[in-house]
Amino acid sequence: MMTEDPKHQDIHEYLAEFEDIPGTRVYTAARARKGYHMNQFAMSLMKDENRTRFKADERAYMDEWPLTEDQKLALLARDYNRCLDLGGNVYFLSKLFSTDGIPFAEAVSTMTGMSFPEYREMMMNGGRSPEGQRSIREKR
Amino acid sequence: MMARITAGVASSHVPLLGVASDFNKDRDEYFGPIFAGYDWTREWEKAEKPDVIILVYNDHASAFDMKIIPTFAIGCGERYKSADEGWGPRAVPDVEGHPDLAWHIAQSLVLDEFDMTIINEMDVDHGLTVPLSMMFGKPDAWPCKVVPLAVNVVTYPPPSGNRCWALGEAIKKAVESFPEDLNVQIWGTGGMSHQLQGPRAGLINKEWDNMFLDGLVGESDHLRRIPHIEYLRETGSEGIEMVMWLVMRGALGKKTRALHRHYHVTCSNTAIGHMVLRPDNGEGLDMTGSDTVTAIAAE
């Protein structure tokens, strides 16, 4: 177990380490800034009237928000890895999962390259092993 | 007589457990083994009869959006309703607050240099209501009052494990200076290993989770020094929620002993962990003989 003294943690080193984790986008301040409007857009889907308007015309609803074209395309395609790259956070994006009426785990599975049945099977069998998934640099 | 913290409870707060409870699936083949691990605790809670729970949890884009991100926030309101998380609010009782105790804790914490955000009105999501269902089942009203304590574990950086532990220590001090005879429990919720995003989603680390459970018992405080990067690497991006368990642990004093322990892999995307701890510093808190019952049940 690592036992660094958090009192001496340098913010640049702290953030740099996140880039070494395979298949993971940590929701940093940089991502939170980039994705601010995307996450607030997703939050708006908590209201039934907004869900109805969004479903009627997704593009028109999103055009009311200051989203980038890339963000709109990623959302229209339900390309959630791309949404994460563009600053989305999964707890906010989950408002879109429920608008689409799909289980959280199914939406999660689309980010893994596995089908939902394959993903579910993996989770039933104890989940993804951390072996080889901890660090890109250290290959562990 | 003053208020006192008599026990600590740790539990995952997976939303699907709330669904299972609300739609009576909690004893089926899938959920049965998970809920069975809480049966002991439900009986124990009936004997313990806590007056108030300080419930440490995180909001999942329900009461807070990206407009305001409090690191530590304490609910000082009279009453909280179940949040609509996109599927309609859970059909669970309203949560009754304890404004007098909450404001007392808030004031004491600020004097103790924890600069708390005060919340007077909010809805509470699965992070808070699922643990209540797990520990109390399906009553018409929750059997005790709740002081919600929300921690930011979504936007980085969340507070360090060390800071969470120290907050727990300050909460203990605050509770013990509240001049009313109150039986107070503190619950730490969230975790254990899980990752809900990206190609690495689905990560589960039984070995690490159990090391963490071991570390909550006894005198050691090594868990408070685990850096964020270790949670991220070992337990997935959402495993960081376990820092909230350290607020609970910090509030139990130097030494604890385990009354009950449950671990189950998996529920949906998440490893379920649950533990009941008693402060063990000569307080003599076994009021009902339930600790002995535990020892028997655990065998």
From TrEMBL, chain A:
SUPFAM superfamilies: LigA subunit of an aromatic-ring-opening dioxygenase LigAB
Top EC class for this record: oxidoreductase
Pfam families to which the protein is assigned, alphabetical: LigA (PF07746)
InterPro entries: LigA_sf (IPR036622), PCA_LigA (IPR014159), Xdiol_dOase_LigA (IPR011986)
Chain segments annotated as transmembrane: none
Keywords: Oxidoreductase
EC number: 1.13.11.8
Every Extradiol ring-cleavage dioxygenase LigAB LigA subunit domain range: 38-123
GO molecular function, one term: protocatechuate 4,5-dioxygenase activity
NCBIfam families hit by this protein: PCA_ligA, PRK13377.1
Name under which the protein is recorded: Protocatechuate 4,5-dioxygenase alpha chain
